[in-house]
Amino acid sequence: MNVVSVVTPVHGASARFLPEAHASLLAQDMPDGWSWEWCVQEDGSDVRAQACLPDDDGRIRISASRAGGPHVARTMAFARSTGRYVKTLDSDDRLTPGALARDIAVLENRPSVGWTTSRVLDLLDDGSTVSFELSDPPPGLLPRGSAFAFWAEHRRPQVHPATLCVRRSLLALLGGWMALPASGDTGLLLGLDALTDGWFTGETGLIYRKHAGQITAHPDHRDGVEWQARMSLIREHAQAVRDWADAAKSP
After folding, report:
1. What 3-state class would DSSP assign to 119?
2. Alpha-carbon torsion, ordered 78, 82, 84, 88, to 10 deg
3. pLDDT, tens only, 127-140
């Protein structure tokens, strides 16, 4: 059986959303010969994820590590995973039906593509959803370097890193997610973009919950000294990976 590993960081305040994330996994119609495993990583003590999830689903694998933020927790979940492909799913988000099958189909049928992303709908507190499709690229191939070019101009990714599905070998090469207080998933996205082509799926693949407790709602997320340091390191990392990849291809 082939496996796609879904990795989910969770801290105490977001554990209450885990049943909805689990329901979205149960709704996945997997291709023949494929299954998923769900590696849930508790970020710190007293998270109690197990209390929010069934104990009779052997595909759920829960562990805990010292508090280090969601990107460290994702990387620890990756360390415990076994799948050929690794899919990110935050504890407060939901996959749409067919999301995993679409990711698998791209990566199985296009060997030159190293990672996939998809369209996102934001879920607001009142239950409504908002689309940002006007900034989405056309569905299909994302040539190597194109994600960085957009980010360098706008200081935000054009595709949502919360939808990433990645070949395991590439994720291992980059060491997982960047260990930053925020934007570590953007750093990973741009590192992947420096190595290989990506793919954007036009169908909505993720329902992204917007709420006051998420990292992106913090006042330091988009401005200030911390933001400047994060952006500087993300740029340096992406450029270093690209330079290394170019040198490796030279005669």
Report:
1. strand
2. -30
3. 788 886 658 999 99
Give the predicted TM-score (pTM) of the model. Answer: 0.94
Determine which helix (DSSP H) or strand (DSSP E) holds 188, and give its type and residue range.
helix 184-195
DSSP string, 11-70: -GGGGGGHHHHHHHHHT--PPTTEEEEEEEEEESSS--GGGGS-SS-TTEEEEEE----H
Give the integer Cα–Cα distance in Å for 112 and 132: 28
For 203, list phi and psi in degrees, rounded to 5.
-70, 145
pLDDT in tens, 133-166: 658 999 999 999 999 999 999 989 999 999 999 9
Q: Give Cβ neighbours of residue 211 (< 8 Å, ≥ 6 apart).
A: 92, 125, 217
Report the C-alpha gap between 102 and 97 in whole angstroms. Answer: 10
